[in-house]
């Protein structure tokens, strides 16, 4: 997500929270909206699908403390007109009270690997004006802006539903997508097999040309090659020279153990293909975890409610309890109470930060309503004979 995309997007409004919302309020708002607009709940509803994507994007920015800080400061600078000056010579970064940001990225000209930047970017726009970015002397290369950055592919959002156990243990799941992918015929080059793109003779591969107007020089995208720096004389018949075709593909998603409901998994380079071999976008998979009839969780701890009888609480005993990977015997101490939690170390959910515990909560099961009156009377009599008074020591008995 580039900073220039932040200018027109109000992620707080998208999630329905204020700019002063706490991290917990943002998290709750996102989970509710993601759940309400989940594709599984709204099959065929394009509006809900788009809303699901937008709230996921919003949460990825303001749900991350570092990105939220950068987002807030960037939008504050834009709204206050804080970009009024020129880029510093030799660089494109300004310093704000909260850190650095790249002014070149705002205009699409942030430096990439090897110093390549986009045509029409800040430095390209003013490079000719201050005679920066060109070689010495005249000629075709004098004052030429940097090469056009290839148009990368778009990010893709999708959803994945897992059972509680799959999410807790981790799973490799196959998902099927239909999106822009590298052309299989030309392998993304855009040229017919057996041929290759040629360097544009007009801009000599730079992707930009210089236009002089009076004492000023301006860089603009090359009209002959569309700013790509190359031309294709014999385009691929299947992709018409774009290097991209729409097709269905199957992707293996490795879900890490312990993934939580609403968490997003990023698969680098698995989004839409870029134009003529440019880098692909990323794939973001939002995980929905189904409820389980037996288990719940608290972070890495696995939670289980264990039904027991009253005699088992009083006398104690041993009970077999399920875990994610089998069963374990739990010892109930004599004299236990309803709601008491027994802990079994290391039998919870395994994550990178360590394996949690199994927490077993004792829950007294109520005898059936049809239990014989004589049996209940005998039980009550036995308690009285033993001197048991349920209200002994109770402050309200006086």
From TrEMBL:
> NCBIfam families, alphabetically?
PRK14279.1
What function does the entry list? Answer: Participates actively in the response to hyperosmotic and heat shock by preventing the aggregation of stress-denatured proteins and by disaggregating proteins, also in an autonomous, DnaK-independent fashion. Unfolded proteins bind initially to DnaJ; upon interaction with the DnaJ-bound protein, DnaK hydrolyzes its bound ATP, resulting in the formation of a stable complex. GrpE releases ADP from DnaK; ATP binding to DnaK triggers the release of the substrate protein, thus completing the reaction cycle.
Record note on cofactor: Binds 2 Zn(2+) ions per monomer.
Question: Which superkingdom is the protein from?
Answer: Bacteria
The answer on whether this UniProt entry bears the keyword Transcription regulation reads no
Origin organism lineage? Bacteria, Bacillati, Actinomycetota, Actinomycetes, Mycobacteriales
Q: Where are the CXXCXGXG motif repeats?
A: 183-190, 200-207, 222-229, 236-243
What does this protein need as cofactor?
Answer: Zn(2+)
Q: PROSITE patterns from the xrefs? A: DNAJ_2 (PS50076), ZF_CR (PS51188)
Q: Where is this region: Disordered?
A: 32-68
**Keyword entries, A-Z:** Chaperone, Cytoplasm, DNA replication, Metal-binding, Repeat, Stress response, Zinc, Zinc-finger
Under the subunit heading, UniProt states: Homodimer.
Zn finger (CR-type) location: 170-248
- Outline the extent of the CR-type domain: 170-248
Q: What does the entry's domain section say?
A: The J domain is necessary and sufficient to stimulate DnaK ATPase activity. Zinc center 1 plays an important role in the autonomous, DnaK-independent chaperone activity of DnaJ. Zinc center 2 is essential for interaction with DnaK and for DnaJ activity.
Chain sites annotated for binding Zn(2+) 1: 183, 186, 236, 239
What segments bear the compositional bias annotation Basic and acidic residues? 32-56
Record bears the keyword Protease: no
UniProt source species? Dietzia cercidiphylli
Family of the protein in this entry: Belongs to the DnaJ family.
Q: What is this protein called?
A: Chaperone protein DnaJ
- Note the Gene3D superfamilies from the entry: DnaJ domain (1.10.287.110), Heat shock protein DnaJ, cysteine-rich domain (2.10.230.10), Urease metallochaperone UreE, N-terminal domain (2.60.260.20)
Q: Which PANTHER family match?
A: CHAPERONE PROTEIN DNAJ 1, DNAJ HOMOLOG 1, MITOCHONDRIAL-RELATED
Binding of Zn(2+) 2 occurs at 200, 203, 222, 225
Domain J intervals: 10-75
Where is this protein found? Cytoplasm
